Amino acid sequence: MTLIKFKLNGIDCEIESDPSLRLLDVLRNHFKLTGPKEGCGEGECGACAVLLDGKIVNSCITPLANVHMKEVTTIEGYRETNKYQVLKEAMEFENGFQCGICTPGMMIAAESLLSKNPHPTEEEVRIGISGNLCRCTGYNMIVKAVLRASKKGEGIW
Ligand code: FES
Ligand code: FES
Predict the structure, then answer these.
(1) Do the domains spanning 2-74 and 81-152 agree at the CATH topology level?
(2) The domain 81-152: what is its CATH number?
(3) Relative to the CA of 45, which ligand 1 atom is closest?
(4) CATH top-level class for 2-74?
(5) 155 alpha carbon to ligand 1 midpoint, in Å?
(6) Could you report the per-residue pLDDT of 116-155, keeping only the tens digit for each?
(7) Phi/psi class of residue 6: alpha, beta or left (left: φ > 0; alpha: ψ in -120 to 50)?
(8) 64: Cβ below 6 Å to ligand 1?
């Protein structure tokens, strides 16, 4: 057992645990944050995506040890930000919201992209969300929503 300390959605927290546990399981089972979802469980689909020090990671392949003294943001924390509001409104406008399995990861991927590149091209958006899979969509509405958010959110990213 190891004491792991980190910031979770802006709040200092710690957990005495096996450091090899998957971050996804710790978030969902211990902290009851069920926004990150388990899709493939092997780092391929992005349903479990969270931000680690602002960068997107797949929490299903991230050991708890990796978050020690770092900052984790899940969709629950991101939801409290102005950026989320802008992105949410753009997703609603473009009918970009899909199911509850893929959407949290898509939102995290969009945030990760826009925080690095506030004015992405369409191709850059497609590349930015390419780690997030959905078998039900052609992605076009999501791409349009991210482009719309980048315009509507001028100055906040
Ligand atoms: S569940 Fe983690 S990448 Fe698919
Ligand atoms: S996986 Fe969510 S809508 Fe396809």
Answers:
(1) no
(2) 1.10.150.120
(3) 4
(4) alpha beta
(5) 32
(6) 999 999 999 999 999 999 888 779 999 999 999 999 999 9
(7) beta
(8) no
